[in-house]
Amino acid sequence: MRISSRLTLVILIFSGACSSERNTFTNRTFHNVTAHFNAYYLADVKLKEVESEVFQNYKEDFTQILPVFIPFDSTTIQANAEKLQSSRELASKAIEWHKISNWVDDSYYILGKLDYYQSQFDDAQNTFKYVNVNSKSADLRHQTLITLLRLYIDQGEFENANFTIDYLSKENGVSDENRYELYRTLAYYYEKRGDRSGVIGALDKAIEYSQDNKEASRINFILAQRYQREGFDALAHEYYEKSLIGNPPYERSFYAQLYAQQVAELNASKDLRKVRKYYDDLYNDPKNSDLKDVVIYERALFEEKQGDTELTLALLHQSAKEPGSNPRLKGYIYQKLAEINLSEFKDYRATKYYLDSALTFINEGDPAAIEITSQKESLDQYVFHFERIHGNDSLLTLAKLTPDEQKLVAETYIKSEEERLIRKAEALQKPQSTSIFDNLLAFSDRGSGSSFYFDNSVAMQQGAIDFIRTWGNRPLQDNWRRSAISFQSAAPTIPDPFENDSIATEPENPVSQLPAIDDLLAGIPNSPEQIQTLNIELEESYFELGKLLYFDLKETELSIGNLETLVREYPSSSRKPEAYYLLYLAQKDLSGNSQQYVSRLNGEFPDSQYTFSVNNPDAASGNLAYVESSKRYEQAYNAYYDGQYQSSKTLIKSALEEYPLTRNTERLLLLDIMVTGKTESRARYRERLENYIQNTQDQNLVDLARNMLKPMLSLAELAELNPKEIEAGDSTQVDNKELAGNGENEALAESPYKYSESATHIFVIVMEQSQADAAKNLLADLENFHSSNFSKERLRTGNMNKWENAIFIISPFSNAEKAKEYYSKFQKEFKSDELPEEVKSNSFVITIENFQVLSKSKNLEELEEYRTFFKSAYK
Length: 875
Fold this sequence. Notes:
Serine Threonine Protein Phosphatase 5, Tetratricopeptide repeat, 4 strands, signal, TPR-like_helical_dom_sf
C-alpha cells in the first residue's frame, strides 16, 4: 500500500507538471527540460545539418577573393525540404506544447531562420522582430538582430541595415560569440557596398572574438587576399601564414602557401631560375595532381609580369588543357587570354571567342560573367560584321572568275586543307614507350617509331585522304556487299548496321571536315539576285562596323577606313549622310581634313539633320535641347495646320539649326517636307520625300512618307510596290498622332535619370538662400506636419546648400509609392506662411541614386532637367 501510494503521488505530480497552463516551479522545470532536450534540440540539430551541408557543397574559388559568407545554395535547400519541414514542426511543437518554457523564443528564432533560408523573407523579418521585442534574453535578442541585419543586407535594404547597425552599436553586454557574428556581418555589409577598407577592418575585429580555429583560418585567408590586392605584401604574407593554422582543407592550404611565396619571394626575387623551379616543383608534386592548371596559370601570371607575352600565352594555353578541380578557373584562363589579345594585339575576333569560351565555365550569375557579357556586346557585333565583310567580299571576288578558274581555286583550297590535316596528325603523333611485351606481339615493331599502319596516325590520315581522292566520300564496305547492291532492285531495304563504319563519316575523324568540290562551287553566287543580296549585306556591315569602331571601340582610323569604303563602293547608299557625319567627327578627332565632309553634306544633302549639325557644331544637345525642340515643333505643327506655311517653315528651320540632333529631328524634317508640298513644285516635293525615305531610320515615319508619296507615283511605279504597301489605306492621309509624337515619354526615355519603383526616395524643396533665411519656422512646420500625418514613418529633415540655393530634404521613403503619397499630401495639406507657393509647387521626389547624379551637376539647368523627368515619371 505504501509503495502504491508513492507511485500514485509521483504520477499525480508529473501529470500536473505536463500542463502548459499552470505556471508553477514544477511545471516550468518540466517544460524547460522537455522543450530544451526534445523538440527544440532536435529542430536545431536538423537545421544545423542543412547548414553544414550547404557549407560542404560549396566549392570555394581560391583564385578570387573569398566571400565573407558562403552563399545559400537554393538547390541544397530544396533537396533538404523534408528535413527543414521536420525542423519547422519540431520548433512549432516546442512553442505550442511548452508555452511556459524558456525555449519558446529560441524556437521562434529557428522558425525565422527557416523562413530566411526558404526565401520567405517577409515572414522571417516579422519573426525576428517579434523575438527582438518579446525575448527576455539579451543574447538571443542580439543574435536575432544580427541575423536580421544579414537579411537586410541580402535584400539590399541598406537604410534598415544602417538603423540596425546603429542600434547594435549602442547595446551593452554583447557576448563574444555575438560580437564575432556581428563583425562578420558588418564585413558582409561593407562587401556588398564595395567598401574594401571596411571589409578588412570588420574582419580584423571578428578575428579577435573567433572561437573556432577553422573559421579563423578562413577569415585569415580572406584578409591575406585583400591585403595582397591592396598591395600590402608584408601583411598579406603574415595572414597567409596564419591561415595555415587550424588544419585548413588541403586546397586552401595549397593556395595559402602558393600566394605566401608570391608576396614574400617570387615577386621580389631576382633569381628567376629559383622562381621557375618553385613552380616546377609544385607542378611535379603528386599531391597537386588536381591543381596542375592552377600552378601553370600562376606561372603564366608571373611571366606576364616579366614582360614575356609569348611565354605567357603559351602557358595559359597549357593551363587550359591541364586537368583541374575548379571549372571556373578555366573561365578565368580564357578571360586572361582575351585580355591579353585585346590589350597587346587589338585582336577583337580572338578576344570575342576567348570570352565565349570563358562564359562556358563561369556561372551566368557570377560577377565575372556579368562583366564578360557586357564587354562582349560590342565585340559580338564587331565579329559578325567583320566576318560577313570578309566572307561576302571573297564570294563576290570568286563570282567574277570563269568556271575553270573557280574550280582551280576550289581544288587548291582542298589541297591546302589536306596538308593542314597531315600537319595536324604529325603534331599529334607521339612516340610510344618500348616495352618488353612488344616482342610477344604478332607485330614486333609496334613500339616507338612503329611503321604498323593502324598505330601510325599520319599514315592513316594520308590513307583516308587518298581514298577520298580516288573514290569520293563514300562508306567503306566489303566487296560482296558492293557487288550485291548492283543486283538489288530499287525497293527499299533494311539498312546494313555496318554501313556507317567509315572513317570518313566518323565525327572525330578530321578527314570528314574536307568539303566536296561540288559543295564549294555551289556556294559561289551565280545570279544577279544573289550578288545583290551580298552587296546589300556588305553595305550594311561597312557602315555598322565603322560606327562601332568609332563609338564603342575607339578605333578612329579603322572606322575611317570602313566608312570611306562604304561611300566609295556604294555611292547611292541611304547611309551616306550619316557616314559623312561620322567621317567628319573622326577627322576632327585626328585633326584631319574634316571640312571636306562639311562641303559634301552641304552639296549632296543640304536638308539632312547631319548637315545642320556640322553647320552648327556648338548647338545645344541633350534632354533640355529635346524639350526645347519639342516646343518649337509643336508651334510649327500648329502653324502648318492653320495654313501659316512660311511661319511654320521658319520655326522648323530655327529648331533644326539650334537643336540639330534630337529625337525630334526626323519629325521636323518630315513636317518641313509637308510645307514644301504646299509651297513648292510637285517635283521638288517628290524628290524630298524619296530622299527622306532612303535616309530615315524611324520605320513609322518612313511609312508615313511612303503614303504621302503614293499619289505622285505612276501606275507602273505603283505596280512595283509591295501589294501590302498599296493596301495600307488612303495614301493622302497622315497619322497626325504618329507625326506629333509624345514628347513627355521620349523625354523620359532620353533622360539620364532612371525610374525605380522599389528604390529609396527622398523629398526635396529648393529655394533661394534669401527665402531660406527668412523661413525661420519652416523646419518646425514640417515637423508638425510629419507628426500629424506620418507619425510612424520616422521621417528626418535636413538641409544643404547647392547652386547658391538652400535645399531641404525629407527622408527616407522606402519606395516610389510612399514618396508619391507624401508628395501628394504635401501639395494638398501642408501649410506654412514662410514657404512660397511657387517653391512648394516646384518640390519633387527623387531616388538616392538619381540625387547623386543630380548632385554632380554644376548648374541649375540640370535641376530643370530633373524636374522635366519628374513630371514625366511620377505624375
